Q: What sequence folds into this?
């Protein structure tokens, strides 16, 4: 038994994060085409890894909406990484608050929604 509202919200956050990574990769591709890369092979590797992360987040969104535990687990890992990245960005001077908030808040929201979805599904299964 799944929790439709919570699962939909959690899936929406995961999908939005995946789309944001696709947009970031497209911006990086444009920068690569403009010759803004110090190392072509490193830039291509970063773009490929970013796109792999985007595909993973979108797959986790679909799986979360379908009530799959593997998708919630993978989504939680990405949310923890997002919170860690936001906290780490506080050490860069000057602090780029827009980045910290844009990465940290969705990660915290996604983490909370994924935990709530899991709890609701476990409660429904126990009944």
A:
């Amino acid at each position: 038994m799944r929790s439709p509202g919570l699962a939909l919200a959690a899936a929406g956050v995961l999908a939005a994060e995946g789309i944001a990574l696709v947009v970031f990769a497209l911006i990086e591709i444009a920068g690569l085409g403009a010759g803004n890369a110090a190392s072509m092979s490193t830039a291509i590797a970063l773009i490929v890894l970013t796109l792999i992360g985007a595909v993973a987040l979108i797959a986790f969104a679909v799986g979360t909406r379908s009530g799959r535990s593997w998708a919630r687990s993978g989504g939680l890992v990405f949310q923890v990484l997002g919170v860690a990245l936001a906290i780490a960005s506080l050490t860069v001077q000057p602090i780029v608050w827009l980045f910290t908030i844009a990465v940290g808040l969705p990660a915290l929201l996604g983490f909370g929604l994924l935990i709530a979805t899991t709890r609701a599904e476990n409660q429904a299964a126990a009944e």
Residues 4-126 form one domain. The CA atoms of residues 65 and 75 lie 12 Å apart. The chain has a mean pLDDT of 92. Residues 4-33 form the longest helix (30 residues).
